[in-house]
Amino acid sequence: MAQKSRAEMMEETRAKLIAAARKAFADKGYADASMDDLTAAAGLTRGALYHNFGDKRGLLAAVVDQIDGEMAARAQEQANRKGGSDWEKLLAEGRAYIELALEPEVQRIVLLDGPAFLGNPAQWPSQNTCLSATITTLERINKAGGIKPIDIEATARLLTGAALNAALWVAASEDPETVLSKAIEAFECLASGVLREQPDS
Amino acid sequence: MAQKSRAEMMEETRAKLIAAARKAFADKGYADASMDDLTAAAGLTRGALYHNFGDKRGLLAAVVDQIDGEMAARAQEQANRKGGSDWEKLLAEGRAYIELALEPEVQRIVLLDGPAFLGNPAQWPSQNTCLSATITTLERINKAGGIKPIDIEATARLLTGAALNAALWVAASEDPETVLSKAIEAFECLASGVLREQPDS
DNA sequence: TCAATTAACATACGAAGCGTATGTTTTTAT
DNA sequence: ATAAAAACATACGCTTCGTATGTTAATTGA
Where, residue-wise, is CATH 1.10.357.10 in chain B? Predict the structure, then answer.
């Protein structure tokens, strides 16, 4: 089909705006990103913005949603690649979260600006994408009787929180390579706290 | 002395501005807080602001510093109150962090707005106030040979990160009472991962 | 098929806020 | 006592956001 339908055009402009926003938000931060510049870079005007996303925050929410989806997919991929036990999958997820959060785009938009302008991340619908994966893995381990009798969701929240914070620490360090390995070690150490018995490693 | 020196006057206006900023930032958030309104509420104008703090961000930094100092002091107080072993002190600190982070003022200003407008908290000088306390406690436990051979700072970073994230979760929940106890349980569980042997509890 | 309506934007407008540049007054220094 | 500087207040310009109002093209209904 050479002709694009109206709905397709709409989706295309939405995609262009989101793409331009990802770049602008990542480069300048949400607060310093001008909507005039952003929309112009996408070959549009602010009119398209307010028609499609309501306001500036709406665009940020859409961007966060998109990034979060990509994060969850990539983390799952990493976790499933190596196979292994559910426990090893949990550790792989944690490592993946840390490494994903090292990307400037994720860090600036999702970890720094997101909470300030979209509010408490614990209330985001998207945050649950990454989180539910961890919950699922924890529940599997739990059904096998491998962990202590604690609240699954609470544990998942703390683990992901620790991972994201670790990423911020690594990003701020002057020697990310070695600091990253330290962070991953510490993460696996803390995670082992949920086990009934010490792992083999 | 009935007369106040010039330096005292200066400190007084700084204190008034910081106090007004704490209230305004906590109520409306940093982005939506008007400097005109804020300074007027302190009985001053924006002139005083830019003379004392450089810009809006400078005022936020001062506010964050003050709150962080109070947090560290209160957490230490809580940890030392019950006495007990270093291990119990570590758990008490974690619990204190979670409970402190539940206060709307701390949450809005330090956890949500701070990172967005002051940048990565891992680079803040003030963040180290709370963190170094945890590091100190961990080192004490380490010297007694009680923990696994992992990086102390990394562990402290992850533990505080987990605590702060837990607080955001509790704050967003509809039943903070029970969720808080779950979060504290999970925290202690994860923290026990650093121990060589399972604690007595 | 052809008006009429609506969707998808663009343009124009008004208001608010930040930072700076420029006063103004009161100490401090010499 | 006069000059200098500190501690603010006032005034100004610039940017930006959200909305209100066009404008064009597609869709609907008879």
Answer: 63-194
In this prediction, residue A86 has a pLDDT band, given cuts at 50, 70 and 90, of very high
State whether residue A141 sits within 8 Å of chain B by CB. no
| 57-76 in chain B: CB under 8 A from chain A | none
B166 touches chain A (CB under 8 A): yes
Q: Taking 60 as the threshold, does the pLDDT of residue B47 lie above it?
A: yes
Does B98 touch chain A if contact means CB atoms closer than 8 Å? Answer: no
Instruction: Give pLDDT tens digits for A172-184.
Output: 999 999 999 999 9
pLDDT at A198: 62
Which pLDDT belongs to residue B3? 57
Query: What architecture (CATH level 2) is domain B63-194?
Result: Orthogonal Bundle (1.10)
- Please count the other Cβ atoms lying within 10 Å of the Cβ belonging to residue B112: 22
Of B120, B158, B172, the CB nearest to A166: B158
Pick the CATH number of B1-54 from 3.40.50.620, 1.10.10.60, 3.40.50.10610, 3.30.460.10: 1.10.10.60
Contact A165 B169 (CB under 8 A): no
pLDDT of residue B30: 98
The amino acid present at A142, given as its one-letter code, is: N
Q: pLDDT, tens digit, for every residue of B115-159?
A: 999 999 999 988 778 899 999 999 999 999 889 999 999 999 999
pLDDT tens digits, B69-104? 999 999 999 999 988 999 999 999 999 999 999 999
Question: Nearest CA to the C1' of C20 belongs to which residue?
Answer: B50
SS3 content of chain A, % helix, strand, coil (to 5): 75, 0, 20
User: Which residue is nearest to the C1' sugar atom of C26, using CA?
Assistant: B6
Q: Phi first, then psi: what are they for A200, rounded to 5°?
A: -75, -30
* Exposure letters B18-45 (e unless 16+ CB within 10 A, then b): bebbbbbbbeebbeebebeebbebbebe
Chain A residues in contact with B157 (beta carbon < 8 A):
165-166, 169, 183, 186
Report which residue type is found at A163: A
Give residue for tokens 């690594």: A170
| Candidate from B111, B122, B186 with C-beta closest to A169 | B122
